Protein: Riboflavin synthase
Amino acid sequence: MFTGIVEEKGHIIAVSKQANSLKLTIQATRILSDVKVGDSISVNGVCLTVTSFNQQQFSVDVMPETYRHSSLSRAKAGTEVNLERAMQANGRFGGHFVSGHVDTFGEIKRIWTEANARYLEVQVDPNSIKYLMPKGSVTVDGTSLTVFEVKASAFVISLIPETQQATILGEKQQGDIVNLEYDMLAKYMEHLLRNHKHSEQDNPLTAQTLKENGFMD
Structure:
């Protein structure tokens, strides 16, 4: 589990690519202070497991499912990535609940500035817009952000100066691809309501059903 508060920007220094999988080696500093093999680290919002490390770098494997549903399939040596260690139970919760299980990716269609804010409009599959709402939360490349506007097939986020400097989002350009994780509470609610609806259709609760099972005379 993560919070979406990026701890540092790392650099991919090596990519070993197979047909539908990857091994990444990433240079970092801060997050390596207490790292262990088996630890979870969010790389651009994707929860990955540390397989090896030293004082300057760590390695992770990207399996086919992650390869197909995240921007890590486009990873190249020299690329900067957002990094966050799994949250600690005794720490402050600065962002929102982030699982590190990326739902999909979107494309930055427009960028503009106003005062000290940098706005990004991200185009997504129209079918996924239902998970977004104004003032709700979304994770973009591992960064917890507030949704400012929702359109038919896009949403708008705003970056404060600290986020521009501390994450790779401050350097993104029009046409870039970003990983997206929607609010897990919205996804759980949809799942529960869908299953409840199907259950009612398969086993409708009627007066006759109650009588047959001894709940009514």
Notes: The chain has a mean pLDDT of 91. The chain has two domains: 8-85, 104-196. The CA atoms of residues 6 and 84 lie 5 Å apart.
